[in-house]
């Protein structure tokens, strides 16, 4: 199993290296190498997952290769093979594979075709590095490499001004989170003298009592560590207040958005907290913080999606909001539900993005939904795929999204977290609204395409672009139903996640089974809100029977992302520029260099100029000085006497 | 142990060849380039031989060559190495080899003496890193200024007079203070051998004064805030290879001196003043990063970035004082981090100055605004440069990460605030490094006024060699640790014993 896992992990890296060394080969070569390397990973993921469950294996942590081993600090490549990492890797590789396949057609006219696949392969590899990591240092390395690959991919079109600002921003915001992660990692090294997950899980109890001072306040070492690590997760998984890089990351090619949003990047933070759930369970206060951050993100960023008009940006804000649900689930100690929503979300969000990509290509890179309309007849396959993905996103009963999202909402309510529960509940309405907004505007109404293309039914898009839509529809709609019962009974993730008993008690007392949950849902307030949202959208976006004008002030606040937009676009760069200029011009040049250094040399210079004047060379000057000095001396002697 | 004086060969071979090149101007451009290439290659091979025969399990000085030089005063011709010296000698010879490769395609007037000065510089640097007699050390240390002064003064840019004089006086001022302390210590110890200074018992006031003298002397060299202002000027005026050797090896002399003199000799005063010195290092890391962000000149940006990275080196060194009683392991980690940071910065800054030199050849401007859209015309070059910029911002997997990581860990062992402030460099260094990449490499440049074309093969070799080493050190820093570990350990234990 170990050997297979290594191959699984290394395969995308080998793909990267092969593509890197053979830059001048044909497109076919790039396609073959990149897709096959991911395909290998995908098949192996499924195979190992099957092996794992069928042989009733136990979680194992293996150190494969040691790179450096110095006292505290040892850097090694290790694997943590358990149900959690294997399920996660199956999700990552399956989405990645479909995105790769889809990109063949999407990127076919791009000159840097080869470069694209180098990056995507490397992206997948970095993510797998995180997924299989069995120690914190490898986690951090994977974490940063994911940041690097996303930087390269968002800025893939190097001539596009907005893209190269977006990737700069994405990298820097992620770096803010990395500071937290790095500090957490260093504290782990100092207090545990190891970075291995298992060893830390074992000794966590004894160390829990350690206190440490941070700015005069005393914290338990473990809480401080978990808090710092969560800051890293906040940046990667786009949680308030570090969420503002994600919508801008839309500047990259659309398949990349699918990859970033569904599987390979933003899920890393959620996955990390789930992976470390045994540690988080022992902290005090951190989980409540996580719960609130998650629900605030889910509610407020969902609202922002309502006022957007760019199809990709709407979906981007929807991702942030959905990640908020996952984070809230983590905060309520419902780790398996968070992972469940992560999985279902990966599929339906990837599907949404690939549909969006298909629409964008068809509309010649038009992304404004006000200018796109009536594509239902022209793109029937995309239309259906988008419909299913949307149903899953809004949590329509029986879809995947229904099981994962409604369970989170109900469970948060069940365990008595009232305020987060209300926020998550209200988000159902906003989710329904913004999803229907795209759906009705893009697919209904009068067709926006030119007449000549409108009747061209034969070519919706290339086959490479449509096949992934078919394939993704299945898990996006039905996966939830299949894995719901085993997941809730704790069979899917077994002992990999802590606090399973919470989920199980929720399941036994509230859900009972998936069918019951489905039937029961029609009588809940959740469904009422969903239904109200659908009715409202139908009349508002489709029939346009009425018009609501939101007060301009509120609209502006939401549109500006509650000030985060101006903060990131305007204030932070400005503050940094001003501080930098002040420190450089006023302190460094004026005060230190000119004031201190050059002034010293000027003073010495002018002094020596004055002294120089004494050396005139004229005898009578010298004799005058000698005589006056003599007289002065005599006078002094006289007085002294 | 070897039966030939390997250190003397390493020191004098390049100096002699260099002097020949300087004196006889008959050599043509290509033959002088060839001679330089062969010499630096030979020195590199010998230094690898030195590394291989060095026994890293023993912390003792090795390859000792100790001859009486001036017997009455107990001044010796005393060359030896420990792990710290070996690592820096390797860096010196490697960077000089790269300079020789890079310079082989460059065109300068009087190229043979240009290359000759670099060879002399190489010998003097190796001498500085292997001298264990304080007078010998001082002579090498001071002589370093002369070839560099000439390189910048003769082959430098427009404003070179101002830059050279500033650079010369600045560093001379520091070394005079250093000379005074050396003389004072030697007077007490009755010998000029550096190791004899370690066992001296000094009064607290004496220690503080000596510490300040050394701190100013080496602090200017490394350079620390606020005595760093000579560096940007010197870099801007220096020719490409001059900048490379200045940033990648010459600055390290300051850090090396601190480890040799400051740490063991003035321990008590150091413990007393450690928080102030850590504060200065943090100022360098944070303040200078902001200053680097504001730069419009590529070379100045990298020069300031060097100062910020050297902040980690001084921080790692001064953390030893702070952690000595509290947490000796963290102290060791800090010092090892400082050493690795020096080596790593030697590679990365060299690479970035090479990159800037290549772009300058086309655009004839070092200003950021005159260079844009390079990636369209020089894809391979841009790929490499992005790599180095990422390494500069401490990406894990590159050498830039290892040193910073160790120093931050060590700082957290001292106090959370120190760790947090040092870790801010993660954001700041990324912000200025990637800003450079964003403005220079990316963007649309349709006309290509600058006439960019892909860089030459010898330049690709130089940059690729650096990529390999930066990656190797980042992924598997074991060999460097093994080299340093015993020596670093010895320094820390000898200090601790000295106190007890």
Which residues of chain A sit in consecutive blocks of at least 5 with pLDDT less than 50? none
**Ends distance of chain A:** 107 Å
Largest sheet of chain A: 2 strands, antiparallel
Strand order of the largest sheet of chain B: 1-2
Please characterize this protein's 3D structure.
- The complex is a heterodimer of chains A (641) and B (500).
- Chain A is mainly α and 641 residues long.
- Among the domains of chain A are: 336-551, no CATH class; 567-640.
- Chain A contains 26 helices and 4 strands.
- Chain A has helices spanning 2-21, 27-54, 83-106, 113-132, 136-154, 161-192, 197-207, 221-236, 245-248, 254-264, 267-275, 277-280, 286-306, 311-331, 335-362, 380-394, 400-414, 418-443, 451-454, 463-488, 500-511, 514-521, 525-543, 552-559, 564-614, 619-640, and strands spanning 60-70, 73-81, 211-214, 217-220.
- In chain A, the strands form 2 sheets. Chain A has a two-stranded antiparallel sheet with strand order 1-2. Chain A has a two-stranded antiparallel ribbon with strand order 3-4.
- In chain A, strand 3 and strand 4 (217-220) form a beta hairpin.
- With 500 residues, chain B is mainly α.
- Chain B has one domain (6-499).
- Chain B is built from 21 helices and 2 strands.
- Chain B has helices at 6-23, 29-53, 83-103, 111-130, 134-143, 145-155, 160-189, 194-198, 204-221, 230-237, 240-265, 267-294, 298-323, 328-363, 374-377, 379-392, 399-414, 416-423, 425-440, 457-475, 478-499, and strands spanning 62-70, 75-81.
- In chain B, strand 1 and strand 2 (75-81) form a beta hairpin.
- In chain B, helix 7 packs antiparallel against helix 9.
- Chain B is globular, with a radius of gyration of 22 Å.
- The chains are: A mainly alpha (641), B mainly alpha (500).
- The interface between A and B is large, with 52 and 53 residues.
What is the gist of this entry?
The complex is a heterodimer of chains A (641) and B (500). Chain A is mainly alpha-helical and 641 residues long.
